[in-house]
Design a protein that fits this description.
Length: about 260
């Protein structure tokens, strides 16, 4: 299967959907799938036609994590195994660092690195039938890299419960602990996801880029440093044409005309 077949791409009105498309392999994050996803994210970073990204999957499993058959074939080849986890970590950081908001559309099961992928997205909407787990502990391989994204999105005790038990978490529980934003009936999953995407896509892409970058950066800073940093971000943001246009449009009671700069 080619990279183009592994991950399909559609763009409509500024919303680009990346669909993991290996349902026969439970959309596992094999080296090939990770390379394809990395390439897609690279291409979207500077794509002027993309304002919001939706990450979806075909079939009944969103993503089952790493391909354990591939991992078994590499027993004793630690360098190759390290390369797999390094590439996966790179992809997760690409999602976070992408200068466009990323929404996970989750139907079915998301486990291990698949759960990590959901947690790495800026927003997530799940069908009420979706389930999540970090079950590595059950097979003797603790979900250490998924832990990074999970622990940055849910309370540490909830994260530890998922990591230590390896048990499945239902969609409503995932919403309660902050892993996903919304849970809806699967029949209205697309409607909900794309309504959210359209609301965001209607904003200035420059402003979204500034805000997303600042959000993740300030999280890693102490309180005083975070305020110093974000004060500078807001000052710089105010000098941008879209900020000035937006303020004038608000005061003039008209719709802003974004120039995305």
């Amino acid at each position: 299967m080619t990279a183009e077949e592994m991950i399909t791409v559609t763009t409509d009105n500024g919303i680009t959907t990346l669909t993991l498309n290996q349902p026969e392999n439970r959309n596992s994050l094999s080296m090939a799938m990770l390379r394809a996803l990395s390439d897609r994210l690279d291409a979207l970073a500077d794509d002027p036609d993309t304002r919001v990204v939706v990450l979806a999957a075909s079939g009944r499993v969103f993503c089952a994590g790493h391909d354990l058959k591939e991992i078994r074939e590499q027993f004793g080849q630690q360098e190759q195994q390290k390369a797999l986890f390094d590439l996966c970590s790179k992809v997760m950081q690409q999602v976070v660092n992408l200068p466009k908001p990323v929404i996970a559309r989750v139907a079915g099961v998301a486990t291990a690195a698949g759960c990590q992928l959901v947690a790495s997205c800026d927003l997530a909407v799940a069908a009420d039938t979706a389930r999540f787990a970090t079950p590595g502990v059950n097979i003797g391989l603790f979900c250490s890299t998924p832990m990074v994204a999970l622990s940055r999105n849910v309370h540490r005790k909830h994260a530890m419960e998922m990591l230590l038990t390896g048990e499945m978490v239902g969609a409503l529980r995932a919403e309660q602990i902050g892993l996903v934003n919304k849970v809806v009936d699967e029949q209205v999953l697309d409607e909900t996801v794309y309504n959210m995407a359209r609301v965001i896509a209607d904003k200035s892409s420059h402003t979204l880029k500034v805000g997303k970058e600042a959000f993740y950066r300030q999280l890693e800073l102490g309180l005083e440093d975070a305020y110093d940093y974000t004060s500078q971000v807001m000052s710089d943001n105010l000098a941008a044409g879209d900020a000035q246009e937006g303020i004038c449009a608000f005061l003039d009671k008209r719709k802003p005309e974004w120039k995305d700069c």
